[in-house]
Prior knowledge:
5 copies of one chain form a homopentamer.
Chain A: E1 30-36, E2 41-46, E3 61-67, H1 72-82, H2 86-93, E4 100-104, E5 107-118, E6 123-133, E7 137-142, H3 150-157, H4 168-203, H5 207-239, H6 247-312, H7 321-324, H8 328-349
Amino acid sequence: MRTIGKQRKKVGLPPGTIVYSGEKRVERVRITLIDYDETHFQEKEAGAIEECFPFKEEPTVTWINIDGLHDVELVEKLGTHFGIHPLVLEDIVSVGQRPKFEEYDGFLFIVVKMLSYNDERNELLTEQVSLLVGENYVISFQEREGDVFDLVRQRIRGKKGRIVKQGADYLAYALLDVIIDNYFTILEKIGDRVESLDERVVGDPTPKTLQEIQVMKREMIFLRKSVWPLREVISGLERAESKLIRKSTGIYLRDVYDHTIQVIDTIESLRDMISGLLDVYMSSISNKMNEVMKVLTIIATIFIPITFIAGIYGMNFEFMPELKLAWAYPVVWCVMVAVIVGMVTYFKRKNWL
Amino acid sequence: MRTIGKQRKKVGLPPGTIVYSGEKRVERVRITLIDYDETHFQEKEAGAIEECFPFKEEPTVTWINIDGLHDVELVEKLGTHFGIHPLVLEDIVSVGQRPKFEEYDGFLFIVVKMLSYNDERNELLTEQVSLLVGENYVISFQEREGDVFDLVRQRIRGKKGRIVKQGADYLAYALLDVIIDNYFTILEKIGDRVESLDERVVGDPTPKTLQEIQVMKREMIFLRKSVWPLREVISGLERAESKLIRKSTGIYLRDVYDHTIQVIDTIESLRDMISGLLDVYMSSISNKMNEVMKVLTIIATIFIPITFIAGIYGMNFEFMPELKLAWAYPVVWCVMVAVIVGMVTYFKRKNWL
Amino acid sequence: MRTIGKQRKKVGLPPGTIVYSGEKRVERVRITLIDYDETHFQEKEAGAIEECFPFKEEPTVTWINIDGLHDVELVEKLGTHFGIHPLVLEDIVSVGQRPKFEEYDGFLFIVVKMLSYNDERNELLTEQVSLLVGENYVISFQEREGDVFDLVRQRIRGKKGRIVKQGADYLAYALLDVIIDNYFTILEKIGDRVESLDERVVGDPTPKTLQEIQVMKREMIFLRKSVWPLREVISGLERAESKLIRKSTGIYLRDVYDHTIQVIDTIESLRDMISGLLDVYMSSISNKMNEVMKVLTIIATIFIPITFIAGIYGMNFEFMPELKLAWAYPVVWCVMVAVIVGMVTYFKRKNWL
Amino acid sequence: MRTIGKQRKKVGLPPGTIVYSGEKRVERVRITLIDYDETHFQEKEAGAIEECFPFKEEPTVTWINIDGLHDVELVEKLGTHFGIHPLVLEDIVSVGQRPKFEEYDGFLFIVVKMLSYNDERNELLTEQVSLLVGENYVISFQEREGDVFDLVRQRIRGKKGRIVKQGADYLAYALLDVIIDNYFTILEKIGDRVESLDERVVGDPTPKTLQEIQVMKREMIFLRKSVWPLREVISGLERAESKLIRKSTGIYLRDVYDHTIQVIDTIESLRDMISGLLDVYMSSISNKMNEVMKVLTIIATIFIPITFIAGIYGMNFEFMPELKLAWAYPVVWCVMVAVIVGMVTYFKRKNWL
Amino acid sequence: MRTIGKQRKKVGLPPGTIVYSGEKRVERVRITLIDYDETHFQEKEAGAIEECFPFKEEPTVTWINIDGLHDVELVEKLGTHFGIHPLVLEDIVSVGQRPKFEEYDGFLFIVVKMLSYNDERNELLTEQVSLLVGENYVISFQEREGDVFDLVRQRIRGKKGRIVKQGADYLAYALLDVIIDNYFTILEKIGDRVESLDERVVGDPTPKTLQEIQVMKREMIFLRKSVWPLREVISGLERAESKLIRKSTGIYLRDVYDHTIQVIDTIESLRDMISGLLDVYMSSISNKMNEVMKVLTIIATIFIPITFIAGIYGMNFEFMPELKLAWAYPVVWCVMVAVIVGMVTYFKRKNWL
Lengths: 353, 353, 353, 353, 353
């Protein structure tokens, strides 16, 4: 996971120059349009962005979703038609943005991060999602086709719940809500990995375990960077004095805010746990070293003295009276056994065996 | 103790969908109702939630306590009758909530965590308690049947103290008070475990001790997460400009607030102590390694030189004049003893023995 | 030093129940009364609390000091006569309070911690002191008889300084001032112990040293908990808009506030130093291990090769031409000496000797 | 990289004394002047500062860029003509300034740090850039000739984008924008180095790696010191109620502010990663030590016992019945092989082999 | 450096009692008086404090400097004449004050710390400087004769710069400015020591190096305690609504404030570096241990197996066919050499040699 390079902006280009800064993640930009109110529902995939323009004027809620950000021309056309400031367009296609909320005349601009988890490679993926919220439209930009928004689409299609009775601000809330709800799924997966690591770190601490701890630590640094600013984003939305956000939506935003705080709390707890893993790893290593040292010490301490005794009677002095005695050899054996027994007793008392 | 997974919300369901997110901890939801004022007292166990509805209109204080949150339908009926916002009902049955306080038209909503301690398994248990405080009623929701509230019930039954002369706000205060008082009991138990760990960590630091330190560390992370937001909850209640909280109750809330701060202080102190334990553990391990190394070094350093001497006179050279001398053998013994004495003296001077 | 258990409140009793939560530290509650103004001075020891009641109405400043908190009945009588809120009385006898300042109608309530140092057992002792400050009276509660307040008594008796010309607020200030001044004495003693530890930690780091560091660390955690809230207490007093605090006393409170900040600064510095001691301890241990290892390595590295040489000529092959040569034995000795010299030179170059 | 000494001010000189505090980095001070509006463009290199003075009065935007700060006289002349406060001139030539923003009558004063990276020596270089922003002029001061501003120059020359239609405030913004955009390039290089270090730290941790980690740590301390105050600088500019900053420029400043926050976020992430590297380094070292110990232990534990057996039968007792037995020698060999096999099995089970 | 004891106040004395709390650092209190305005200059050394009193009434700026604080009577006389509050006088002679700024009727009271560096003993010295700033006078108190203020004296004598045209507030500023400028000199010296330590810590980490790191760490704790409050002092001065500080002086105070922030920044950087040194020290120690272990392991691992081989053929079995073979001895030598070569190759591959 490269966490640094992506934020790079094209140095030196005039501000407001719209240049896509990410990798091209989808072949073709896909534009889907949903237009609805309590009685009416229309969904279509637009071949060209111009097909969406007529909906701007209609009183029904229009949701334009754009998957893929590399078609800069399309974004510019959209911007011109909907009256979006060039700096906003620049931010939409610069995928290293920090989550943020900005109020403009006639629309609100929200940038958040959508997370997904590659189960095969145990890798955390991130994607920038920008929302433009107007009087009666929401335009959402994603780096690639995602399935999280499908949950909202189904609710609109099925005319389930409050959503079809509410305005564009509620739609924007609903999109933020599914994005943040999705964080809980991601955090649960990370929680599972922390627990699996936890077991391995005590049972079998290898350098690979350490590397995994490091990777998780970085993921948390990265996650934190994506989520902390969300707090301000949501509370900014809640407090915004814009006419674009109805009072009745405020209570739902407070609910999203609570979830954001929960996500942040959980991230902080996971960070604390992962830091704890490092401590456990370090002491597991120390423990293993200790055990190795004990084995060496026990072996050496038992055999060195008795080897010395054997060495004594390996000397070739002519006048060594013991050598002539028939019972000397068994006695030496007894002494050796006594040394072994003494040592083992000593280690037992020291709790080394 | 799983600290992460529980917070998970059902991703993608429309907001306000009431789905119980915890484990089913009681077989049957139990509804108890206490209705009282200074002169009047009624207590009953309601078979169905509808039995409680008439009490809403009466001027006496009504306390409805619901043990078990999995009967979603019951919660919905209650919500409809008492005019509770669907998002509040959703929060009541989602057991991973952060403690919070919210003001609504006509009622206050309070979420706190109740702690208990499983002595057998040395495990900290947590339970979400939600309070709905209206003009003349308090509805409390618990995950399972608890005995902490019995203390309040007895006071009402016995008409002891101020409680029967006061309104629903005082009842809510009394419930919060026993919940927070109970934290002190829990913290004392944790304090005892810290002290017991403290002794073991110096005397006999095993990998199991380390694991126990880690478990306690996590418990503190978890406890902290449950208690820190309480501060805001209580001070929010104290400052709330709702008509539902009488002025005379304010002074009692300040008292609860003081206790909350004391709980937080104690948690922070315990955290510091547990962190300290890890340092002691690490250096106990180092100390033990040091001791092992010393034994090895002493044995090796004494015997290696004298074994060498024995080796010398084990050589088979034909012309080794010493071998022929009658006093050579005792002299060699003397040299060896001298080496031993020298080494021991050296170690004594180094404070190794 | 138990830092946790003391804070425990009696769980479940109705709020305002006055139950002494500490150990009984004095046999008999002692009530002393001093009544003074610029011209008048009266001091007596009251047998019963009722003897103090008439002084409430008099315009002179009355100081009632109560040593020992276990006589709950006495406290209650006092409370009733002076119109003290039951929650305040509860706080006075619950000795695990956090320092705090509260304004009530007609009186101010101040809780602080008084410290003392048991030199024999090198132990920090703490005692809760509560002050009730009214229009023309101060009532002080202590857990046991203390000598710090004697300094104030002597000033009143001797009519020294400003004190006799000022009101009850100045008396309260004077009492806080001696309590906080006393902290400096305590901190100096701790500072001395830190310095003594500092020397031992480098010279002779034993597990006992580690334990002492841990004890001091905890004392600092404990001290910090007692002193940090003092800051708010004093600044609360300073800013209080109560008529009970005259403007002229404000400047003295600012002085006490400065001292409190100094105490906090010093505690933080001591904490930093004690943390530093742990680092030094850990590396002293590492250094010692290193030294042990070096001795082992030097001995082993010198003798292992020459023992091998001796081993070679201890072999019993029939055809070992060296064995027959008369000068072989001295040559072998020379080789051995050469190995020794070589090794020693190598170690010298490595700075190991 | 010396991070301390540069900040030194000339002690004791009267304030407002203009003394250059850096090293002389360019031979000759170079003055370039660009004067432009939507229709007009003039660029020249001025031989003397006086050539720039007439442009002060003209309504077109004038950008005077000065490379090299050691010509104190020049700065003073400029200051006198443009009415700059002596303390500002002092700050311009004292190159250890903290980034700051100050409003004066008639002009704004901005100090920032420009970074560059010496690829050969892997060294981070810093340079102080001061901007004086007036009604229709910007004066920029650099320590040496830089190429980052060329990007702005080209935009003016080419009349590209908004810049030529805007005033001096937009020019100042454009200069700040390229400086901060350049930070991303620097951070990416540092990110690359962190990743390269990361690999080496696991694979081959040498003391040199440690030193490199330390150097990077210091670079981050230094970078942080340069960038953190930028936050206040930009937000100060944004909030400034000066008439010198038009409303239309505000939105661009908010964009720069976002970039600054991103830079700070990235620096904090890098700091966390570099701290993590140290942990990995320490445990890599421990791991290597562990491996060394294991080899020693395995060798010693296998050979010490069998060497002892050989020692036994090297004894010269006359009555050792085994020595006479023809099959004793092969049996001893078998015992030795059995010992080896036993040990190897034991180590295999312990996961040491 | 004792950092704790000095702050001790005389416990129990009435507040406002003027008792010198430091060591007597000068033999005789020295009073110097400078009286000046734009046209007039008078300098004299006063034998008695009373000689200074007449200057209080004159419109010229009067600077009374007092070196040595132990003459409490002198301070009291001064206080009475100039109308200084007793608590201020107490603070002036209590040398453990925290830097602070207080406004009183008719004068301002400023306490700061002056630093100096004993190059011989590599020791940081501190001295309390108090300033009383009135309408047209400044009274400065120092613990001993210092030379930093000479820089200001020379400027007044030489009528250089702004100083003689400004009032007492500018003089106070000028004194603060030289004190804070002097911090940069001190920090540079500490920076040099850090760099010298840095080299030694990698090259030759001895326990003495560790002690030096600890000493520097404490010096930084101490320095920080002296400098952090300065921030508030200066910004307090800047914001003070006292008539004693003219508007024109405000801009100079802002400059001093900037320097204070720079000093704080530098101290924090130095602290970070010194903490880093400890990490390097610890891993240098580990590295050295590792090297020792390697030498031991290499020697042991090479010689233990071949010593075993020698041991085999040192056995005295009668039936050992190898012993009779003429070429057996050279073959054994070859085997031994092969073992050595094998081991060395193994170590080479492991990068141990």
